[in-house]
């Protein structure tokens, strides 16, 4: 199936809407002001050569009233800004937030998300019918299953229910894909998941074989959601090969670690080069791969972009179908737990979350990597 993004290097706006451990509802699009200044933000990215972005709908606001009653006022300014600026947007339908009172473990969650996805697709098609729409049904199924189903940090704040939550999120994602395709068969879908690599301490290898096995099993768990969507695992959930479209890879400096120990970023003796992880992913699924999240805070951001871009080019040389890299977050945002001003991405924002400006050094690096990447096939 052909694919086309307006720019290979993309920008992702942090659009998390989860409930924290203390019950506070996060809404990063509101706290950064992006929800009301989307046109300004999209225009800035276009100046840097970024014409494709990840952005999100806020289901908890859109369906805040009675089930099936949608108020699109929180979304239409962003949708209209994308149309006015000619920005291609890959829309997250659910970035960890639900309408108040909806039980994520219920059948009602699946049916309501299915209906919401169809309604959103109809609105987007009616407003801007020409482009092929792109959606991420549910962001990071595996991470949400762990953080909300095992360690209680996000809603639904459960322990020991991670596998159950993962299956439920897969069911909902599959239902949403079918619903959106019923509205617009051209629609394309991203399935972002973190990729990880865990190894045992070198002196544990012979002494503690169970640690070796735990490390291996934990690393393999990164494939579970994709395997379920593709029908390779638990086919009773309804997955099939055609339900797996773009493989979305979320990858940061801390996605690799030693079992029970430190992280292993580039330079660590046990670090696994990103290109090897990408090639293995390609060989497993043979689906186009998009880096849906990657980045670092100021001070490490330029070097990190150079590393990721070089690794993506190497993966492409070795046969992986790499179709894009999304810098995420592409704009400063307040920390989820402490509201710390996290300075990251191409767009810097002042302390009042009002004045925006491009970071010249990162823009220069981005343009350099874009020129180099254009010549790698």
Automatic annotation (TrEMBL):
Protein name: Beta-glucosidase
Native source species: Granulicella tundricola (strain ATCC BAA-1859 / DSM 23138 / MP5ACTX9)
Organism lineage string: Bacteria, Pseudomonadati, Acidobacteriota, Terriglobia, Terriglobales
């Amino acid at each position: 199936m052909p694919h086309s993004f307006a720019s290979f290097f993309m920008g992702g706006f942090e659009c998390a809407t989860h409930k924290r451990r203390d019950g506070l509802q996060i809404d990063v699009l509101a706290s950064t002001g992006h929800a009301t200044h989307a046109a300004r933000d999209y225009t800035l990215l276009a100046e840097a050569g970024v014409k494709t972005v990840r952005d999100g709908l806020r289901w908890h606001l859109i369906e805040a009233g009675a089930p099936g009653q949608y108020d699109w006022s929180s979304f239409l300014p962003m949708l209209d800004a994308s149309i006015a600026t000619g920005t291609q947007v890959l829309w997250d339908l659910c970035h960890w937030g639900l309408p108040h009172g909806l039980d994520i473990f219920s059948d009602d969650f699946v049916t309501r998300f299915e209906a919401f996805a169809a309604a959103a697709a109809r609105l987007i098609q009616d407003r801007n019918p020409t482009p092929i729409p792109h959606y991420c049904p549910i962001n990071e199924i595996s991470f949400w299953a762990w953080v909300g189903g095992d360690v209680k940090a996000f809603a639904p704040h459960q322990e020991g229910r991670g596998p159950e939550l993962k299956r439920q999120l897969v069911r909902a994602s599959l239902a949403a894909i079918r619903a959106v395709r019923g509205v617009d068969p051209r629609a394309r879908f991203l399935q972002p998941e973190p990729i990880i690599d865990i190894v045992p301490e070198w002196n544990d290898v012979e002494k503690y074989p169970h640690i070796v096995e735990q490390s291996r099993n934990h690393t393999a768990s990164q494939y579970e959601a994709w395997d379920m969507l593709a029908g390779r695992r638990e086919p009773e959930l309804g997955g099939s090969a055609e339900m797996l479209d773009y493989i979305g890879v979320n990858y940061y400096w801390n996605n690799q670690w030693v079992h029970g120990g430190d992280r292993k970023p580039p330079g660590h003796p046990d670090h696994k080069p990103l290109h090897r992880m990408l090639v293995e992913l390609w060989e497993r699924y043979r689906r186009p791969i998009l880096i849906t999240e990657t980045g670092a805070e100021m001070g490490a951001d330029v070097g990190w972009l150079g590393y990721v871009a070089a690794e993506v080019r190497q993966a492409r040389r070795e046969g992986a179908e790499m179709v894009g890299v999304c810098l995420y977050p592409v704009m400063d945002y307040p920390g989820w737990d402490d509201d710390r001003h996290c300075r990251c991405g191409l767009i810097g924002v002042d302390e009042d979350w009002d004045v925006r400006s491009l970071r010249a050094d990162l823009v220069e690096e981005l343009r350099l990597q874009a020129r180099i990447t254009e010549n790698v096939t």
